[in-house]
Amino acid sequence: MKRSVLIPVLLLLFSGMMSAQTIDGQLLSRFRRDHAEKTPRGVVNVVANNQDIKKIALNAARAGQIDTHFAVKLDIQGITDQKSTGRCWLFTGLNVIRQKARERLNVESFEFSENFNFFYDQLEKANLCLEGIIETRGKPMDDRVVDWLFGNALGDGGVWNMMVDVVEKYGAVPKEIMPDTEHGASTGNMRSMVRQKIREAAVRLRQMHERGENEKALRRAKEDMLGDIYRLLAIHLGEPPETFRWRYKDKDGNLSEYKTYTPRSFFTDVIGVDLGDYVMLMNDPTRPYDRLYEIDRDRNLQEGTNWTYVNLTNAELKAFAKKSLLAGEAMYFSCDVGKYLDREAGYLDTEHYDFESLYGIEFTMNKTERILSKESASSHGMALVGVDTLADGTTDKWLLENSWGDSAGQKGYLIMTDRWFDEYGFRLVVHKKFLSPKVLEIAGQEPVLLPPWDAMF
């Protein structure tokens, strides 16, 4: 290449490398001019002087349009309250299956002890993390899996499969047998202490490996470490019973005889269903539909089942949901609950707030883009217990049994529009008898394995 040609090419390449733009005075002047032209002074005054943006953006045109009646609504008695915790997955899972307990016991209302299963969930998650540390003991600290293990040493969140695994292994007990302690109702301080101990144990196990100690020695040490974690949990949450005596009064006023149970025998007696017959469905538009996916390490038991789901369109999820509701069976449902939520009214509606008119700015991301950019993900689990249709047969809205207490929303319920379901609904767990042969076939296939840091985690 001639020198006369080479110099312009090098200058072009160099200018491309230096093309990152800074905010300069000219750009700021343009911002100021646009703001002055496009933003009414009244909007600035109102927003700057009011913390609650939702009240300002409340769509007045939608006032009076919240219909609280449902053509199909399951008989739910006793709204639960997860309080200051991330245990919605456990409350929702147990709320779905407690309807079976109500029927078998012939009682007006019933609640399982979430605290009992939460104790074992936290203990098992500690073991799962430390097993992961032993498995990756030869990898550097900045290895992505090792980094993920330390970063996710302990949480109180979860999904349906975690409820299933911990209940099938340890059983369940009535609420009154192991009620919440202060730390069961507000887990932050306890988890901070337990998480610190897990990370300390993880560091010690890696140090043992560096000193040349074998895997057998690491596992012996891990048992002692788990003993300390058990003590911390027992101090904060109470110690789960191995056996208990219990009796109850049924809807007809009859008092049962005292009976001695183990937690596992109690669960078998009052539920009598195979939790393995339920299938988790998902609407994840970032991936191909009609496939089975599994998220690695997304479980609470070492021997447990990872979060595994069949990816389907919203239309299919809603069709199966209707079949289940018409048959009288509630479902586990999860969503991005914070989006367009009117917590006081108990309403989830994409048209409920008009942020675009308030700011004069469009918000245009679709569901796929929100997931990939981490703007949206499933944040809360509730029981799907009702559906309502319009005169032409189209679905209008859905009813969710929440776990925020009976003073929140519609006396403990949230109403979700069908459009909101499409945009912010994610997971649905349905009994296999309501699913199509196609979905059952997909559920039996070899899943596509996703990493634990996947956006759906």
Q: Please describe the biggest sheet, giving its number of strands, its sense, and whether it closes into a barrel.
A: 12 strands, mixed
Quaternary state of this entry equals single chain
Query: What's the CATH class label of the largest domain?
Result: Alpha Beta
What name does the CATH topology of the largest domain carry? Cathepsin B, Chain A
Percent helix: 40-55%
The value of Rg in angstroms is 26 Å
Shape: globular
Number of domains: 2
> What would you say the CATH architecture of the largest domain is?
Alpha-Beta Complex
Give the number of helices: 17
Poorly predicted spans: none
Class by alpha and beta content: alpha+beta
Question: How far from one another are the termini?
Answer: 53 Å
- Give the overall pLDDT as a whole number: 93
Q: DSSP strand (E) fraction?
A: 5-15%
**How many strand segments?**
14
CATH superfamily of the largest domain, called what?
A: Cysteine proteinases
